Amino acid sequence: MNPSPFPTSSRRAFLKAAGTGAAVSALAGIKIPYVHAAEDNAIEIALVGCGGRGTGAAANALSVSGPPLKLVAMADVSPKKLEASLKNITNEHGAKVDVPAERQFIGFDGYKNAMDSLKPGGIVILTTPVAFRWVHYRQAIEKGVNVFMEKPVCTDGPTARRMLALDQLAKAKGMKVAVGLMCRHCKVRKELAERVHNGEIGDIVLLRAYRMQGPVASFRVKKKPENEPSELLYQIKNFHSFLWASGGAFSDFFIHNIDEACWMKNELPVSVRAAGGRHYREDWVDQNFDHYSCEYTFADGAKLFFEGRNMEGCDGEFATYVHGTNGMAIVSTAGHLPARSRIFRKQRVKSEEIRWAAAQPEPNPYQLEWDDFLAAIRADTPYNEVQRGVEISLVTAMGRMAAHTGQTITYEQALAWQPEFAPDVDKLTLDSPAPLRADADGKYPVPQPGITKKSEYDIPKPA
Length: 463
Hints:
By secondary structure, the chain is α/β, with parallel strands linked by helices. It is built from 15 helices and 15 strands. The chain has 2 domains: 8-183 and 368-386, Rossmann fold; 184-359, Dihydrodipicolinate Reductase, domain 2.
């Protein structure tokens, strides 16, 4: 896979900061060899996290042509989500689905049962909220199964360090691990990256990225209704609204634009400063800002300006641009597919200035990432995207940290960041209290830039 764009010293810092966890040490002695599934047997798949993204990922997996694939186990904390997901996947891939009641697992320990259902050479899909990613990855390493994990893969310094340390064990076992940054598998973006890296638009001096849209997913929620089963499950159901569960809308949605911009630059920024705010919130109680504005700086002084907004009635844009000394490029035009990547002779988006345009139509990158992943498993070739996933997840979190604290955040500061949103998430049960508590009015702590400088919000102390 692509080498890390971080300098060697930064990668060493990652490893030094990450290598002392007790869980990592305990796993280091486990030797479970990778076993490639025989071609005359189906590669078995377990789905952990049965929401929309998990359902889509499982459908993409089962759509890969070649030797047989079979979904054999599912796990979630919500019976309704699991039931709906199983129905949708069965309707599309009935013959490839074999998930009887005894392999449908509900609860916070269901991921263990789902992985236990796999034969050697199987794949577990990890599409729960990111708060649980390191917990589930640790179990996958212990079992020695291959992994597809959704982005982001971490949301703060402690989880970034933990994920990278765990990944050293996965590499030692020869596990194949994919991360859901599907735009990296897009054929036209790959061609554009090669052209940009070969100097077709000259030296990069500026990048711009935008995700300006209305409220998305569970971005805004109201005070917990009485019919919700528990505060914990309410927060998990609305995970985009709570920083501990998802890193908020910033980490979960803005990561793709930031990633493809850094890809074109072929390095990651060293610092970021940002602003943001909340407006006319009525009775919504989530922790997100409605808008974010970030200025990322690269080592050579080049800038990436990122604008994110989740507000109704405003102009929208979902695109990424690269400006060089000899022209400009559009990485993506209006979302993930089609990218319609183009290169222009000057700094204007004019049809008469087009120097190169991607061929149309474009293959779906959500499918391409699974085609590439399964090809590596079947050929038993090295495949691990976690380090890159950790790095871009952390760089994305840098922008969120800067906006929420009002401080300039460097990469080294983000790496060494100490507050962890949910340090005991691996101990949660269905009866556990939620990691975040509301006040007497049912509202949750929100970022206060300039006031909460060393953490993104005031964490209420236990009663």
